[in-house]
Amino acid sequence: MAAEEDSERPRRGRPVALGAGERRERILDALAEVFRESGMSGTTMAAVARRAGMSKRTVYEVFDDRAALFAAYLSRLRHEFVQPLDDAARALPLEERLRRLLAPRAYASSFDLPLAVLRAMIAEGPERPDMARTFLAEGPGAIRELIRAELDRAVARGEATIADTGAAAALLADMIRPSPLDVLIDPASLPGDAAIQARFDLAIRVFLRGVADGPAAT
């Protein structure tokens, strides 16, 4: 037994091998740190590799290029703001599904880096349209699609009457969060968590009243 335990311990002086998932998360953590310090222009594959304590070749084995790296990071950021529903949650009424999917999670305290990414994407968008498209697809676009899936489910179950679930999803996504434009212009205008929660609750109530009864919303 002791021999088995010794064989499982990493040998002194040799680096511990990381699994694929651990390596991916370490790279994304390094990306966040480099981005905070150096902005978009300084967030190169080489800089991220150095911060992660890896070779650039290793980083490229995980992510094909810088766009793929940012796409993965934006996907991780999105999961800090929305949580895809499991099978049990999908069986709940529409209001509960939307609340579970979209409820604020320490939003104000975690907004700095997403805001910095948005600012950088706006500045670099004309020169890097691929990065801008990635941001839209992995950020706002993906959130709207998650909302739309629940609205489509609600229509199929007779919970709501909505002619254009895509437009309704975009409307709800805009209603539940503070305007990014306001915060970009004046970062101090970002409300606290309590105000954000109150806005979220109001938006859900107003939205559901509009889609629950009456003729199909357009």
TrEMBL record:
Pfam families: TetR_C_7, TetR_N. Keywords: DNA-binding, Transcription, Transcription regulation. It comes from the Bacteria. PROSITE patterns: HTH_TETR_2. InterPro entries: Homeodomain-like_sf, HTH-type_TetR-like_transc_reg, HTH_TetR, Tet_transcr_reg_TetR-rel_C_sf, TetR_C_Proteobacteria. Residues 44-63 bind DNA. Residues 21-81 form the HTH tetR-type domain. SUPFAM superfamilies: Homeodomain-like, Tetracyclin repressor-like, C-terminal domain. This is TetR/AcrR family transcriptional regulator.
